[in-house]
TrEMBL record:
Residue intervals of the Alpha-D-phosphohexomutase C-terminal domain: 380-444
Keywords tagged on the record: Isomerase, Magnesium, Metal-binding, Phosphoprotein
Top-level division of the source organism's lineage: Bacteria
Protein name: Phosphomannomutase
InterPro entries registered for this protein in UniProt: A-D-PHexomutase_a/b/a-I (IPR005844), A-D-PHexomutase_a/b/a-I/II/III (IPR016055), A-D-PHexomutase_a/b/a-II (IPR005845), A-D-PHexomutase_a/b/a-III (IPR005846), A-D-PHexomutase_C (IPR005843), A-D-PHexomutase_C_sf (IPR036900), A-D-PHexomutase_CS (IPR016066), Alpha-D-phosphohexomutase_SF (IPR005841)
Residues in Alpha-D-phosphohexomutase alpha/beta/alpha domain copies: 5-126, 156-260, 264-370
A Gene Ontology BP annotation from the UniProt entry: carbohydrate metabolic process
Cofactor dependence: Mg(2+)
Annotated signal sequence range: none
Organism: Rhodovulum bhavnagarense
Family: Belongs to the phosphohexose mutase family.
Molecular function terms from GO: intramolecular phosphotransferase activity; magnesium ion binding
Amino acid sequence: MNMTCFKAYDIRGRIGETLDGDIARRIGAAFAHVMIDTSAPLQRVVVGHDCRESSPALSAALIEGLRGQGADVLDLGLAGTEEVYFATAHLGAAGGIEVTASHNPQDYNGMKLVGPGSRPIDPATELVAIRTAAQAGDLPVAGRKGTCESVSVREAYAACICDFVDARALRPMRIVVNAGNGTAGPAFDAIAAELRRRGAPLTFVRINHEPDGRFPNGVPNPLLPENRAMTAEPVIAQWAELGVAWDGDFDRCFLFDETGAFVDGEYVVSLLAESFLAGETGAAIVHDPRIVWNTRSAIARHGGRAITSRTGHAFMKARMREVNAIYGGEMSAHHYFRDFSYCDSGMIPWLKVVESLSRTGRSLGQAVGKMRAEFPSSGEINFTVVDPAATIAAIVAQLGPQAREIDALDGASLEFADWRMNLRASNTEPLLRLNVETRGNRVLLEERVGNLSELINRLSVN
């Protein structure tokens, strides 16, 4: 069986075609076989699932596969990806698996995998071994069948999230929160209750709050421009200081300023870098290579060390562990924290931004206004092409001679005197992704985006 649902660092597939109950069972068995010494005591695996309609059945099949190979399962039930990360480290488990397809279309699902301490699975070794074992399907019979126990760590998780800020130092704010009918609602409620207990003077306006795997308002992906109005409009109508929206498994969060304007991810990275460097001058900050000029400027200005990593949670986490970075951020709204087992969280970022705004007295619009002017960017533009690698090579061949720097860490980054671009294939979807930035020149930005889009479309056909 050739399992095409295995991607660069996690699992994604279309239900009934490339991912089903049998495949999930095989993956569970393979994970236990590769990652766990079932002869040792307390070799437990944490499992959680998002609210997609297909997730409970896939989770049950996954658990059956794990137990069949002798692993004991700690089942969180409905939980976000970061709750699985937290529980894996908090409970001392040997690994963790979240059943989720995050922001992919409704007919998709998948899994995110971590090892002990919630460290990332190595894509080149461990993930390959799991795939090989799952495809073979002829694993040795375990000496015992593992157990399954339903557990909850939500109160401890909420306390951990709230420990990232001084709740009593927060100023009164009215905040719109949009769970998108994804999995965020119950976890957010636990955090809001803990903040209230600690004396935080925050008022929340909840919209699309109840988990609903039918996604009546569309699959929660606030990165898409067409999905932003459902958060932006309530921010304006409610006279809120900011808006927060999450994707389906809420390991990413997206911010809207007091005017309802969407705040691009690289500016949030800069705000969070500033916040963490205020407490630890000279610390390492890891960032992805897609949009970098504003991020590097902010890190240097606040006395940090900027370190670039390949895009993707497994690569970002591994790089952060190598350099002991206090924080890592991607423009796609993944944010990673040393004191959260180097894992990504969709709840810590908005809390840290609220703390920063409270400390400085700025509005969110004021905090990012100068960055928007000095380093405008295109946002991520997606192209469907037959051969992403060939298209990237053709672009580099055509534009490379004029570039003053070419970086192949992740796709191709070409830097010129007053503009820069990154072109890379998606790790999880059959797409080519373009990002462009300039130094204070929005007219040039629009011109380069238009020219590059035309060139990509032409070269991808040829």
